[in-house]
Please model this.
Amino acid sequence: MKKILSALLYLSLTATIVPAQEPPVNLSLEQAITTALEQNLGLRLKKQEIMAAQGGAEIAQGAFDPLVIATGFHGESRDTSFATGATSDEQTTGWSASLQKKIDSGAALDLTWENLRYDSDQPLVIDPAYSSSLSVGVTQPLLKGWGRDIQTATIQSSEKLVAAAGEAVTSEAVDLGSAVATAYWELLFAHQNMEVKKLSLALAGKLLDNAAKKIEAGILAPVEIYQPESEVARREQALIEGERVVALAEDSLKLMLNREDWETTLMPIDHPEVGKSQAELKTVLDHALAGRPDLRAAERKVEATEIVAVLADDSLRPSLDLSGRMGLTGTDESYGNSIGEVTTSSDLAWQLGVTFTLPLNNRSAKGGLLTAQANLEMAKTTVDLLRQDVIRTAREAVRNEHLALKNIEASRKTALALQKRLEAEENKFEVGLSTALDVLEAQEAYAQGLIGQKRALIDYALAQVELNRVQGIILVK
Model:
């Protein structure tokens, strides 16, 4: 152990002096995930789907918005009497205003105010004559389109899609949090791997110095210097490769965080914490099946397509509409008097009727129903497939967490044994019972053991990340 510490001292004394750079930015796991949830462009794009779904719901609700309709017209006609050959001219001018509203039973209501002026050159006719009327009308579907459920089906389906879009955004956030946590731990491991490679280089450099001294003292042959020299060069290359891996891992994390300062160095400050208890498969499965937002989103889509299928089935029915209108009318030679007649006279007009419509082929409705039924089956199958995948990934996540926990202890024992082996080889080398190659091999094995020990902790952290992801948990407090 003392020789390993001396190697670290050697590394610090022989390190290349580089120009001062900006200090690294310390970054915790929670800060990384929070920043990504706030800044990630992919998540922002996903949120726009909620707005699009909300727009669809607004469009569906617009069918029940009240309407104000105003019209005006003017017409002229000339008639020639067949008996006398005399001609008569008539002019009609009118305007009307109507307030219309559809209610959720399907009934269309309207309140209409109508005014007409008649001009004629015929004798014995009031000229001009004004007619005003105030009427109320209603049209109620009795077959196709009957009932609140059918009339509000599009709204209900749109609201389900809004809910599904919201769950999809939550699912995207869960996946993003998981991806950020994975990138965070991989960046930490890249830094740890660099530290081990630096230690490995320092150990090789220390051995090179010792070998040079032994050669100078005549204890070793001059050719013994080549092995440690070549190994120092090889480990320097490995250190350069480690720097590249750190840069790649850092860029991956920066991309998820949507950082603009690409030149800033990010330094993870959190380290994996080993839990005292292992995850239970039943608990994880229950949470996953109940809490996975992507599964809930798929279920909301099934509900939406079920409503659409019901509406498509209703479109196969013939139309039978009951309509009625009742109103008060007034006629006089002045416009003001005609208005007064509406409220004072007993002139009452009403009309009641039915309209029956039967499409002979109705291929449009039949095609719509086939499409709706196919979409419903696909949506249900998607949910079934997703449930199976949730079960599979939950089982895999629990299994990986259990194995990762075991691997931590195994890797610790391995690293300790390899450290003792290295110390033994170094002691044997000092007394001439071991070669430089033996020491270098022991150094490499020890370095790999250290990397394996650190990798085991990172793998455990990644297993925890996956456990949370399969349960739909975002890794922020």
User: Anything to note?
Assistant: Residues 96 and 467 are 68 Å apart (CA to CA). The beta strands are 25-27, 67-80, 87-102, 108-120, 129-141, 266-268, 319-332, 348-357. Residues 8-20 have pLDDT under 50 and may be disordered.
